[in-house]
Amino acid sequence: MNSLLNNLSYRVAGRRPHYFRGILVLGICLLSQACSTIPSHPDVEIRDGEFSAELAEAHLVRLAELGPRRSGAEAAARAQAYLEREMELAGAESAWLGSGREGDPRHLLATLPGDSEDVVMLVAPWSLLGDDRWADDAGAALLLALAPTLASGPTAYTRQLLLVEVRSTPQKLGNAQTVMDSEVWDFIDSRTHARERVRIGAEDAIRRLDEAGKLDRLRIAVVLEPRTGPTVPRMARDLRSQPIFRSLFWETAAELGFGDVFPSDGEWRSPSGLQAALQAAGYGQVVSLVEESEPVDVAVAPAAPRAMQGAQPKSRLEPIGLVAYEGLVRLMERLERIDAFGQ
Hints:
The protein is of the alpha/beta class. About 35% of the residues lie in helices and about 15% in strands. It is built from ten helices and twelve strands. Helix 8 links the parallel strand 10 (about 235-240) and strand 11 (about 270). Helix 3 (about 55-65) crosses helix 5 (about 140-150), helix 4 (about 75-90) runs parallel beside helix 5 (about 140-150) and helix 7 packs parallel to helix 9.
């Protein structure tokens, strides 16, 4: 049994086979009929230290196959099982925050231990989708694809990937049930105010992390809020991010040829959502890569993409994933120099 499980892994092309920890979850699923309804693991070849847009798109398809998944539904449980399994296969130690019972969301924290216990964190929302699809799986797919890349990349710091569950109904904040009249919640329920629901979910996740002491060594949080849509994405110029760090990501985007996705001449924004919840809790070391466009109705026919300057992405998630990974690597190198200077 152990020998079988130890030989299950991502297919990695590179200098050597890269075997990952946490294979027990997949092994149990292979032996359990109950796991037969979980979407299959993407058969995508990846390279050490390289972000795979193909893998991100494959995760997006797998999650979309589950269809609407409201709290307590079988589809929701299958989505959670898929997220956990894929993080484990990437080599991360996964833990759920929250019970998942009615009114109590579940957030997935995946950890890749590093040489230092200081943490750099990637944060993205994942949603219990209803028929209206007011939000999508772009953030979850992106983090799942970044996980194996980070696992084979620099290890100077502990890397954490946090998937914040976002719900379409009021949820618990602290020990009290959120009380809102129907008109207020309908306002938040609109597509225009989807990020307000993201913020509410993030407040719950951050509170749980803080209570567990998981934020004590947090050095920087990188917020990823992409969307699945018919056009080339355009990321906001975030006014709230730390200037020294946000400039690093924007310089990275320009060097990679994605100046149209990360415009240096766009208007400054103050995005809410995940970033607002982190800063409200006192964590100001945040870089926020948030898409400017509003959620789109999946029934709307795809529009022709805008012409891009420089690199032509293979997928909508490619520029965001490439910039997020390369920017994070450069950020860790900068933190290493700062730490070495202080010794």
